[in-house]
């Protein structure tokens, strides 16, 4: 079933997603292409149906051996954003404009998704590897404008291998892959990602002192922020320069988990007694009002110096369902708490295009918060009321933001909903063929050199204290002391 609430508005406004997320070239190119398409009445679906519109070919398939059929590459009228949605047994790729499924790929076990950083590819966490998924949408600069293309999505054979792959962090034109069990950080150049290449464009690998559930952020000046700890205890973080020399360190972050970057490249790390901030070459501690005050999921925005975080105070709870969120000011190192009146989960946090703080509540509403004042400015009904499941891997309504649109999954009805953050309305809903779990996406646009958005990107699979139980166990990201996925890696 596909519900069209505002069909003309949806079609027009969703085409702005690529522009809203940024391009390295002038927006005039996209406008020019849209005008051309409008004047001819040509649409991407029309071109897809007509094989004579094929402009080139590239290898496609699901990554299985012997697959060699070429899939057509179609030139589009502008960036064509796509969503990645995991389910039990695989991953779907959806057209983010129409919410129609454009590809399905099988995958065993519990899988997680993270954008790779180039606007086209996603990393599927598959066993002891990050596997590259080509979402089949991209743009290429051409003079003062871009050309945009689509093809069939496919799960490639390109992997970064290592025990317990965890957080994926995109920042400053690089992508950092963190392997908890292997105790290794791989840095790669997302601009050089190529699904037809023989290997991933890894520019460097760093061995950590002791393996633990950690995270790393490669900063714009070439320095590296990484967490510090052991498998049993995580204590803080350190920053080293491009030459490996230590710049700053902190041991004031017990249970360190979750990271994000705010305006001015201020990095916030979640801790069990108030977050820490790295900015201007040094760490600072944020005081919390409670003795145990765990922030393990944080969501930042380049449009705001305030970071949104969760806030938990019950150290002994098997699953705490908090009703307060934290706002962390990276300029003053002060924390403000906001009462929502409803609980939420580690997949509930996001940021809007103007830096709005977004929280998907178990009351079914998307709560919009002014990050400076802490005022709840909007409450948008999106899904039915729900309850967070006990197991962090189990499906629950999930929030993913791309440009001016918030995408929300509803597992109980197998639906995906689109909220226009400009009008604050639900503008489209569609039923998908499988119960959705993780939700991510790519813009199909040329990514800015310093693109970054880690809101999953920084989720915490709650870290509620289970250990790595061995190579065969799934990476317990949400807290289970393998805590979290990368959703907070959103996650």
Provide a descriptive summary of the structure in words.
The two termini are 31 Å apart. The protein has one domain (2-55, 71-442): YVTN repeat-like/Quinoprotein amine dehydrogenase (Methylamine Dehydrogenase, Chain H, 7 Propeller), CATH 2.130.10. The longest helix has 13 residues, at 28-40. The protein contains 4 helices and 37 strands. The chain has 491 residues and is mainly beta.
Total strand segments: 37
Count of separate DSSP helical elements: 4
CATH class: Mainly Beta
Counted up, domains total 1
Shape category: globular
Tell me the span between the first and last alpha carbons. Answer: 31 Å
What is the fold-level CATH name, i.e. the topology?
Methylamine Dehydrogenase, Chain H
